[in-house]
Design a protein that fits this description.
- The protein is of the alpha/beta class and 258 residues long.
- The protein is built from 7 helices and 15 strands.
- It has 2 domains: 163 residues, Rossmann fold (3-Layer(aba) Sandwich), CATH 3.40.50.1000; 75 residues, Hypothetical Protein Ta0175, Chain: A, domain 2.
Length: 258
């Protein structure tokens, strides 16, 4: 990971994709620095799209009230876009069956809570549609890495995909992730193929579930707290900020605006 000072802007940035928790936030709060940065980008004509593991219920509000152009949520199962006074929802998997999905996840949930003491179902689970979020440090005392790995293993032995964020392990059934849904969003909404057109885009993240984005984007950035996960990352971000969370996001936005 290179210092942010080494980043050279080759083309004006038109799209900023960003994680939310511990990327836009510090200690669980959305501060004025990062929120103002979102407004500054929007008012400069840059389209901002949060790419998050947070639930559908949260993202309905974010898409409607924040200065953003859409939200990829629950690690890529679908995206929301508030457009022309109407909320649009696009699923990555057109065959997705929420009822069947939740039955399978309920079994996994019971096993995790039994086998990993101290873990808990995330408080925002009630407004999720496609995934199961297991809290390992948001509202519970932080679990050791070995226990987080055990949660991942339980998901995977049931054939589910599991990704570690800074606060949760998210698990789901389906062949999608943050990157695949981001590509779908760009193709559907702007006719842009990210495989060949990404010089005007960048991504900012902070944890292992952002790894597909770090690997794909030439302009990939981590806020400073990404270093906590350096031993988990096969594909780290290309550049890293000096500051953590929302302050790091602000730092990155200032850098690309120069």
């Amino acid at each position: 990971m290179k210092s942010l000072t080494e980043f050279k802007l080759e083309s004006p940035i038109q799209f900023v994709f960003s994680d939310i928790d511990d990327t836009l936030t510090n200690s669980g709060k959305l501060g004025p620095e990062s929120y103002q940065s979102l407004w500054d980008l929007s008012q400069a004509g840059v389209k901002v799209i949060p790419i998050t593991g947070r639930p559908a219920g949260w993202c309905e509000m974010i898409a409607r009230f924040w200065p953003v152009d859409g939200v990829v949520r629950e690690n890529g199962v679908f995206y929301f876009r508030y457009k022309n006074g109407k909320m649009e929802r696009h699923f990555s998997d057109l065959k997705f069956n929420a009822v069947e999905n939740q039955k399978k996840l309920a079994q996994i949930k019971d096993e995790i809570l039994k086998e990993v003491p101290g873990s808990a179902v995330a408080s925002d689970q009630f407004c999720r549609i496609a995934d199961l979020a297991i809290d390992f440090c948001e509202d519970v005392p932080p679990l050791p890495k070995s226990q987080v790995d055990k949660i991942v293993h339980i998901f995977e032995r049931h054939g589910a995909t599991a990704k570690v964020s800074s606060i949760h392990v998210n698990g789901w059934f389906g062949n999608f992730d943050k990157l695949s849904c981001t590509k779908t969003y760009m193709k559907n909404e702007f006719g842009i193929d990210l495989n060949s057109q990404q010089s005007t885009c960048l991504f900012v993240g902070d944890s292992p579930n952002d790894e597909p984005m770090f690997k794909f984007f030439k302009n990939s950035f981590g806020v400073a707290n990404i270093r906590e996960f350096s031993d988990r990352l096969k594909h780290p971000p290309k550049f890293v900020s000096n500051f953590e969370g929302g302050l790091g996001f602000q730092e990155i936005c200032q850098r690309i605006s120069k």
